[in-house]
């Protein structure tokens, strides 16, 4: 039996802007990769943001926007948070270590160590916003954000929370650029930065955007053989549709993780094309660049925007309902898919 | 009715034993695996002790393309899979859920060394080996697991988060078999961090002792095979224990310090008990987080007092970190294995090094020697940076009884 989850609010920090239309209306032939223009002093005002590193700041900001538009919240111990991220903060981890190595361990900063754990942004955002429910982080490389949203939906299904804020965040930093320039799997100038979160609750009918099902699939052998990722993605799509209780014929669109310029673009495109030829595809990375752990949440923006009458150029504009797939693959051998329904209404 | 989830395979890799018979025998004997650190220079630290798996040689055919934590994870998964008596057919749909604190810190350390020495960084190695989900994809790759997969890096509670997620996946029919656990490699980053927090023990890890002075960073991996009870029954599998339920919570208080009243920790226990459908009076053993730091053990005791009340002094509460140190993301996975073995064998491991009672830690920590205890239900508690708390309850299989 399917369990539907309503997407009730959105918090977004991106280089293109903080409204969904900023991303949706951005040109697809001029990728806006690179760091976000983000000033914590204006964003956080008098509040002490020094304990937050860059990933923490991006997360706290977007989660805050997400919570602010939800109105009255459940008891704090029933509000969960799930952060998808590929790395946490490489800048924090690496700079902590470099300082310990060069100046000596006594000069390494304890605060940096606190933020060196991969779940630091989730913990910091929970402290900042007083979220005492389940707090988790999901990592799956470029699939991290989608995994986080699906894990958040699972927490609701299991009754572990009444409200879950879920999405993803990834920083743009010198460390990642260096690593990517020296043998990375995509051009370094395509690395982006973003933070995007949705407020999730169990759907009781009437939601404009709903997660109806989702699945991840490991693709053993894929690390050295990209060809196995395609079947894994198709398996994930089939499993997500089964969980949604939806016939494949109802799927009209997709929002894919393609167009980063990395080696998995062709695999994901090919798998989707073999699943349904010519399915209209929204490729958020053409606009934002490769935002790694934030990508999965960014991929839900067209559903959010479509339900609110915003133009999604790649998709049909007709109808009151739009069922689609969100897909993502990671080069280490992992694929994920979700079935989303957007509805227009008053 | 929700399908029962049972544990049918155990795979510990630790400084005192690899494979559950050796691990369990060493724990019950009170074997200490903490020694002076060998893998990097600790001359600039006050502390010297670590829980390294010294002389670790991964199984020969394991690829050098894997980082150390992934190798530990793969070995633990192989041990668990073999212990469960499962083969390639079951693997194709198996789920993999892994936890970790740092993923592959040695990979970023190598990256940093190149940076510091102004050498070219190895970007290919960084991207291939550093992202922490490689722990789980390496396990999937090695065993041919093609089911759901995720890494939940909730630091020192991560192994329990993975077990809870895997149990949910099986209950909902997403997989019939899952590998769940955690892994972390010994790392200079972790060591330096805990040293800067003043948290590393000077001579020994002595949880709940009045004179305890810290934890000991360590490494290891623990993986459990979880199955639907029906699947295990069809193939006549040995069942160690049933995953009765779990509770997850967040302190939302401080990144590295527990809530002063143990609020989140107590909440996780209450949720876990409710999820399992049992009361605290039915818990026969608690595997404590028990790091050995002065503050953490006291606050953990407060949380236990809040849940167990007057009954607490009669409940065995031990910490295997006194023997193997704090294995970070692997810790709660290894302690889950301990809970399963306690249920199966009717014995609980000791807290070693305990000499002087602490009025602030009024628990029966099973000092010094293992004890025979009939364990129907065992509670595994884990707490982490970020305020992430987890409680998983294991019990004798209802089907088996």
Structure, described:
The complex is a heterodimer of chains A (346) and B (401). Chain A is an alpha/beta fold. Helices cover 34% and strands 22% of the residues of chain A. Chain A is built from 13 helices and 10 strands. Chain A has a 10-stranded mixed β-sheet with strand order 3-2-4-5-1-6-10-9-7-8, sandwiched between helices. Chain B is of the alpha/beta class and 401 residues long. In chain B, 34% of the residues lie in helices and 19% in strands. In chain B, α2 packs across α6 and α7 packs across α13. At the A-B interface, α4, α5, α6, β3 and α7 of A face α4, α5, α6, β6 and α7 of B.
Jot down its keywords.
heterodimer; A: 346 residues; alpha/beta; ten-stranded mixed beta sheet; 10 strands; 22% strand; globular; B: 401 residues; eleven-stranded mixed beta sheet; two-stranded antiparallel ribbon; 13 helices; 15 strands
Radius of gyration of chain B: 19 Å
N-to-C SSE series of chain A? EHHHEHHHEHEHEEHEHEHHHEE
Q: Segments of chain B where pLDDT lies below 50 for 5+ residues?
A: none
SS class of chain B:
alpha/beta
Rounded to the nearest angstrom, the radius of gyration of chain A is 19 Å
How would you characterize the largest beta sheet of chain A? 10 strands, mixed
H/E series of chain B, N to C? EEHEEHHEHHHEHEHEHEHEHEHHEEEE
Which stretches of chain A are low in confidence, meaning pLDDT under 50 for 5 or more residues running? none
Structural class of chain A: alpha/beta
Categorize the overall geometry of chain A: globular
Indicate the mean pLDDT of chain A: 95
Provide the β-strand percentage band of chain A.
15-25%
Percentage of residues in DSSP E strands of chain B: 15-25%
Through-space gap between termini of chain B: 18 Å
Question: Which of globular, elongated, flat, extended, rod-shaped describes the shape of chain B?
Answer: globular
Distance between the terminal alpha carbons of chain A, to the nearest Å?
29 Å
Number of strands of chain A: 10
Number of helices of chain A: 13
Tally of helical runs of chain B: 13
Helix content of chain B: 25-40%
* Biggest sheet strand line-up of chain A: 3-2-4-5-1-6-10-9-7-8
């Amino acid at each position: 039996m399917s369990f539907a989850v309503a997407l009730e609010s959105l918090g977004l920090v991106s280089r293109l802007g903080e409204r969904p239309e900023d991303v949706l209306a951005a040109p697809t032939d001029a990728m806006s990769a690179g760091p976000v223009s983000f000033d914590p002093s204006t964003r956080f005002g008098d509040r002490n943001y020094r304990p937050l590193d860059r990933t923490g700041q991006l997360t706290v900001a977007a989660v805050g926007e997400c919570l602010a538009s939800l109105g009255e919240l459940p008891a704090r111990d029933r509000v969960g948070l799930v952060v998808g991220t590929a790395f946490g903060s490489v800048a924090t981890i690496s700079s902590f270590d470099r300082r310990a190595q060069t100046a000596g361990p006594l000069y390494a900063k304890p605060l940096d160590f606190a933020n060196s754990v991969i779940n630091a942004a989730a913990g910091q955002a929970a402290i900042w916003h007083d979220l005492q429910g389940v707090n988790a982080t999901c990592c799956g490389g470029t699939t991290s954000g989608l995994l986080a949203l699906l894990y958040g939906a699972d927490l609701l299904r299991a009754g572990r929370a009444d409200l879950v804020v879920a999405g993803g965040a990834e920083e743009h930093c010198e460390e990642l650029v260096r690593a990517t320039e020296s043998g990375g799997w995509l051009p370094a100038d395509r690395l982006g930065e973003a933070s995007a979160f949705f407020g999730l609750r169990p759907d009781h009918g009437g939601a404009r955007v709903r997660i109806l099902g989702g699945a991840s699939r490991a693709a053993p052998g894929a690390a050295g053989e990209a060809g196995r990722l395609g079947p894994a993605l198709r398996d994930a799509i089939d499993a997500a549709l089964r969980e949604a209780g939806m016939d494949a014929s109802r799927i009209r669109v997709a929002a894919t993780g393609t167009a980063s310029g990395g080696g998995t673009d062709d695999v994901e495109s090919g798998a989707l094309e073999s699943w349904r030829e010519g399915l209209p595809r929204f490729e958020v990375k053409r606009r934002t660049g490769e935002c790694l752990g934030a990508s999965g949440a960014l991929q839900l923006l067209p559903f959010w925007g479509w339900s609110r009458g915003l133009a999604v150029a790649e998709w049909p504009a007709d109808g009151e309902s739009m069922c689609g797939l969100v897909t993502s693959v990671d080069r280490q051998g992992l694929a994920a898919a979700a079935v989303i329904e957007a509805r227009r209404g008053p | 009715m929700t399908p029962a989830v049972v544990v049918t395979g155990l795979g510990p890799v630790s400084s005192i034993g690899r494979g559950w018979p050796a691990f369990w025998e060493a724990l019950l004997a009170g074997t200490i695996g903490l020694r002076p650190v060998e893998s990097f220079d600790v001359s600039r630290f006050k502390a010297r002790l670590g829980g390294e798996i010294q002389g670790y040689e991964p199984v020969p055919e394991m690829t050098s393309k894997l980082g150390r934590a992934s190798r530990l994870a793969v070995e633990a998964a192989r041990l668990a899979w073999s212990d469960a008596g499962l083969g390639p057919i079951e693997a194709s749909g198996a789920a993999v859920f892994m936890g970790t604190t740092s993923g592959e810190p040695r990979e970023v350390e190598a990256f940093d060394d190149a940076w510091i020495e102004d050498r070219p960084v190895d970007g290919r190695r960084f991207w291939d080996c550093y992202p922490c989900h490689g722990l789980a994809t390496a396990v999937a790759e090695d065993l041919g697991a093609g089911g759901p997969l995720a890494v939940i890096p909730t630091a020192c509670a991560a192994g329990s988060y993975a077990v809870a997620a895997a149990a949910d996946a099986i209950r909902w029919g997403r997989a019939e078999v899952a590998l769940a656990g955690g892994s972390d490699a010994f790392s200079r980053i972790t060591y330096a961090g805990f040293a800067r927090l003043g948290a590393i023990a000077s001579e020994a890890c002595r949880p709940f002792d009045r004179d305890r002075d810290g934890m000991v960073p360590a490494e290891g991996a623990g993986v459990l095979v979880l199955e639907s009870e029906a699947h295990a029954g069809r193939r006549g599998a040995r069942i160690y224990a049933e995953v009765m339920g779990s509770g997850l919570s967040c302190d939302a208080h401080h990144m590295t310090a527990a809530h002063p009243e143990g609020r989140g920790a107590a909440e996780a226990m209450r949720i876990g008990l409710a999820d399992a459908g049992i009361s605290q009076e039915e818990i026969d053993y608690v595997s404590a987080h028990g790091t050995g730091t002065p503050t953490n053990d006291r606050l953990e005791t407060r949380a236990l007092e809040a849940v167990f009340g007057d009954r607490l002094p009669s409940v065995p509460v031990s910490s295997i970190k006194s023997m193997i140190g704090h294995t970070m993301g692997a810790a709660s996975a290894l302690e889950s294995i301990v809970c399963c073995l306690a249920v199966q064998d009717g014995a609980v491991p000791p807290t070693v090094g305990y000499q002087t009672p602490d009025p602030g830690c009024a628990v029966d920590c099973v000092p010094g020697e293992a004890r025979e205890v009939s364990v129907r239900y065992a509670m595994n508690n884990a707490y982490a940076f970020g305020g992430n708390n987890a409680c998983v309850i294991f019990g004798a299989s209802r089907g088996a009884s």
